[in-house]
C-alpha cells in the first residue's frame, strides 16, 4: 500500500468511526436472499451467480444477468407490498384502490439501484435495493394519516384492567444532561409485526407516540420509528441520542400486533419527552424486537379480507 493510500484510509477511518456508520437495526429476512433492514429502511434482494462450470444450466451473459435482476426486483416488489403500514392495512391493500399510485411504486422498484459483477466468468452476485425512505415512503404513506395533528388516538377501552404490571417511573425529563434525548421501547419478549406508522399507547388507552406527533416530511425521511434487535443505548445512540429513556412494552395491540401498550405512568413520561427538545421532530424512537424469522413475501401479499387476524392473548 502506498503512503498516500495509507494516509487516505486512515483519514477516512478517523472521520467516520464504526459507531457513526448508518444504523441498521432489526433485519427481517425473506426467502431467496431478500431482507428489510428496519433501522435505515433498506429493502434488498441478493441473488448469487454461479460461474460457468458450476451450474451448466446457467450461462452468465449480460442478458441472463438482467433476467436475474428482473426476477429479484419482482421479489422486492412483493416484499414491499407485504409490509404493514399500520394496524389496519398493508402497502398492497392501500394501493389496491389507486392504480396510478401503484404504477408509480412499480416504477420506483423497476428503476431501483442494481449492482452486478464486473466479470461474469468469476460469478458473484446481483443486488437490487430500495429504501422505505424518500420517494418510496412518500408514495406508500397515505396522506390520510393525521401526521403532526397533536391529537393522540384513543383505544376503545382502557387496558389498565387487563395489564396489572406498572413500571417504576424515573425522574421527569429535564434539561441539559438530565433531559432524555429519545425513547427505547423494549418489546423483545413480545410477538410484534414491524410497521411504517405504529402507535405507542399507554394502558389508559391514550396514544403516547406515533404519527400524530411527527410531520409527514420527517416520517418520509427518517421513519416514524426504527426497529432494532438490541436495547443497548450505545448501539442505538445514532437514533435516540446520548440519554434515551428505556421503557418496557407490556403488550402488542391489534389483530396484527403492530402497536404497543406501555404502562400509564411511563406513557405520561414518554409524552413529556416528546414535548421537550427535538425527540419528536427527529423521530427518536426505537422499538426493540426479538430475533426475526424468515418471511414468505408472496404468501403475505393477499387481500385484507383473506387474511386471518392473530387473536389477542
Entry keywords:
313 residues; alpha/beta; five-stranded antiparallel beta sheet; four-stranded parallel beta sheet; 13 strands; 18% strand; elongated; disordered C terminus
Structural commentary:
- The chain has nine helices and 13 strands.
- The protein has two domains: 20-140, no CATH class; 176-288, no CATH class.
- The strands form three sheets. It has a five-stranded antiparallel beta sheet with strand order 1-2-3-5-4. Strands 9-13-6-10 form a four-stranded parallel beta sheet. A four-stranded mixed beta sheet has the order 8-7-12-11, with helices on one face.
- The longest helix is centred in the first third of the chain and has 21 residues, at 62-82.
- The protein is α/β, with parallel strands linked by helices.
Gist of the model:
This protein is an alpha/beta fold.
Q: Mean pLDDT, rounded to whole units?
A: 82
Q: Major beta sheet, specifics?
A: 5 strands, antiparallel
Number-wise, the strands total 13
Radius of gyration: 22 Å
Compressed to H and E, one letter per element, the order equals HEEEHHHEEHEEEHEHEEEHEH
Count of helix runs:
9
First-residue to last-residue Cα separation: 60 Å
Number of domains: 2
Assembly status: single chain
Strand content: 15-25%
Class from secondary-structure proportions: alpha/beta
Q: What ranges have pLDDT less than 50 throughout 5 or more consecutive residues?
A: 5-21, 171-178, 299-313
Tell me roughly what share of residues is in helical segments.
25-40%
Global geometry: elongated
Amino acid at each position: 500500500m502506498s503512503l498516500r493510500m495509507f494516509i487516505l484510509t486512515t483519514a477516512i477511518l478517523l472521520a467516520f468511526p464504526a459507531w457513526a456508520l448508518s444504523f441498521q437495526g432489526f433485519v427481517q429476512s425473506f426467502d431467496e436472499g431478500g431482507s428489510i433492514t428496519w433501522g435505515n429502511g433498506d429493502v434488498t434482494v441478493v441473488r448469487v451467480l454461479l460461474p460457468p462450470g458450476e451450474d451448466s444450466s446457467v450461462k452468465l451473459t449480460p442478458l441472463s444477468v438482467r433476467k436475474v435482476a428482473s426476477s429479484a426486483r419482482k421479489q422486492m416488489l412483493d416484499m414491499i407490498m407485504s409490509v404493514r403500514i399500520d394496524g389496519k392495512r398493508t402497502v398492497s391493500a392501500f394501493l389496491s384502490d389507486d392504480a396510478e399510485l401503484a404504477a408509480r411504486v412499480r416504477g420506483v422498484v423497476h428503476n431501483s439501484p442494481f449492482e452486478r459483477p464486473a466479470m461474469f466468468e468469476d460469478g458473484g452476485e446481483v443486488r437490487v435495493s430500495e429504501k422505505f425512505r424518500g420517494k418510496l415512503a412518500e408514495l406508500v404513506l397515505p396522506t390520510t394519516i393525521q401526521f403532526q395533528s397533536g391529537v393522540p388516538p384513543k383505544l376503545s377501552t382502557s387496558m389498565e384492567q387487563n395489564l396489572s404490571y406498572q413500571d417504576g417511573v424515573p425522574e421527569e425529563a429535564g434539561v441539559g444532561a438530565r433531559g432524555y434525548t429519545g425513547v427505547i421501547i423494549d418489546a423483545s419478549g413480545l410477538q410484534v409485526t414491524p410497521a411504517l406508522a405504529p402507535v405507542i399507547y399507554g394502558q389508559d388507552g391514550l396514544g403516547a407516540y406515533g404519527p400524530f406527533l411527527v410531520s409527514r416530511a420527517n416520517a418520509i425521511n427518517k421513519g416514524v420509528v426504527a426497529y432494532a434487535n438490541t436495547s443497548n443505548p450505545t448501539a442505538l445512540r445514532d437514533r435516540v441520542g446520548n440519554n434515551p429513556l428505556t421503557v418496557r412494552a407490556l403488550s402488542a395491540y391489534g389483530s396484527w400486533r403492530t402497536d404497543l401498550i406501555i404502562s400509564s405512568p411511563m406513557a405520561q413520561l414518554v409524552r413529556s419527552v416528546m414535548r421537550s427538545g427535538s425527540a419528536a421532530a427527529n423521530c427518536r424512537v426505537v422499538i426493540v424486537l426479538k430475533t426475526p424469522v424468515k418471511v414468505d413475501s408472496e404468501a403475505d401479499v393477499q387481500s385484507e379480507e383473506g387474511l386471518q387476524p392473530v387473536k389477542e392473548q
